[in-house]
From TrEMBL:
Pathway stated in the Swiss-Prot or TrEMBL entry: Cofactor biosynthesis; NAD(+) biosynthesis; quinolinate from L-kynurenine: step 1/3
Protein name, entry field: Kynurenine 3-monooxygenase
Catalysis performed (reactions): L-kynurenine + NADPH + O2 + H(+) = 3-hydroxy-L-kynurenine + NADP(+) + H2O
Residue ranges of domain FAD-binding in the record: 8-334
Record GO terms (molecular function): monooxygenase activity
Lineage: Bacteria, Pseudomonadati, Myxococcota, Myxococcia, Myxococcales
Portion of the full-length sequence here: 1 to 385 of 463
Cofactor annotation: FAD
Function, as annotated: Catalyzes the hydroxylation of L-kynurenine (L-Kyn) to form 3-hydroxy-L-kynurenine (L-3OHKyn). Required for synthesis of quinolinic acid.
Enzymatic class: oxidoreductase
Amino acid sequence: MPSNESKLTVVGAGLVGSLLALYLARRGHTVEVLERRPDMRRETLDAGRSINLAISTRGLHALRQVGLEEEALKHAIPMRGRVIHPVKGELAFQPYGKDDSQHINSLSRGWLNKFLMTRAEETGRVSIRFRQRVTHADPAAGALTVLDEATGETRELRDAVVFGTDGSGSAVRQALQSQPDFRADSETLGHGYKELTIPPGEGGRFQMEKHALHIWPRGTYMLIALPNEDGSFTCTLFLPWEGPVSFASLQTPEALEAFFQEQFPDAKALIPGLVEEFFSRPTGHMVTVKCAPWHAGGRTLLLGDAAHAIVPFYGQGMNCGFEDCVALDALLAKQPDLGQAFREFERLRKTNADAIADMAVENFIEMRDSTADPRFLLEKGVEKV
Ligand code: FAD
């Protein structure tokens, strides 16, 4: 384990960076977290990636280790299976397991991120500095160049132990590219995504089945919806960038409304802000990143999306990143040599991360296509709802 005097710097106060800071603090370290965005607890940020997300056993296990699972679950909505919405006809329910104990949970990304930041700070050992963008790094030396976006000033950090949790477009990963043995494959999906809202009904009631992940599978594209605590659902429309039915083909309100009327008539009736939201909200990209090595010189280590960005169709990106924190914590407990600990971390995590990355792409095909196939429905023991 590094000595408690080591300067530990976490780059990125997203979901994984905030949880990692908490884990490191619990081992007695003082941790500085550098986050390029303003503090989301004080300022409303532009709509970013996914309003809610699914947290599963892996992620909950990581929260349990630091005593946060119970509070997180108070804000989560169990989803016991998928509700499939055909173009016409009855809805079908595909349970996730034999009984209700097997479920995933819908949780607000913003709430979870704020919660983790606050709990990390409450240890008294974590300071999160906002509007601090890492622009350059020397991974083997543990050196960072940091731009203060509030003042425009730049400062240099030296001799730090750096944990790069700065997401799929990681600047720390970028810097690792200067290492002779580093390789990275990045594959952008030919689909993008857009978030839309089904507001709560009268008196805050859910306008569809609350305890389910809703899917409108349509072959090359699909719509999904996850429930929120306030009775609303956040829908995500996944569409190809180009082609006959694509973001490129839906350029006018008329085209969009006609498309929804034809393909998602029940959802259209529940999304009053369809046109406004579709044309004003950003369209998200999705990328798979596989890279190695994740570390340099016992000074720098990548975790979370920075090490292994995956497409969201297994709902496992954050869950895997949380599992990284558990794995690293266990290694730091027994391995005083950081170089060894980082190597062992990569050995333990890389095969799993690569496997889930491939499974996530495969699950896109299952979700958008096979969930609507009658043979698939039969195999899965589907119930009507
Ligand atoms: P991020 O969440 O990207 O956080 C990175 C942080 O680093 C950010 O705060 C960013 O501002 C900061 N940063 C970036 N660059 C710099 C820099 N140069 N200097 C300083 N700070 C910087 N996962 C699940 O487990 N379940 C789901 O249901 C799920 N649904 C998803 C739905 C969608 C549409 C998408 C796109 C993803 C989904 N994911 C899901 C994946 C999940 O969002 C990611 O795996 C998770 O956010 C990774 O966390 P992270 O902390 O590694 O990265």
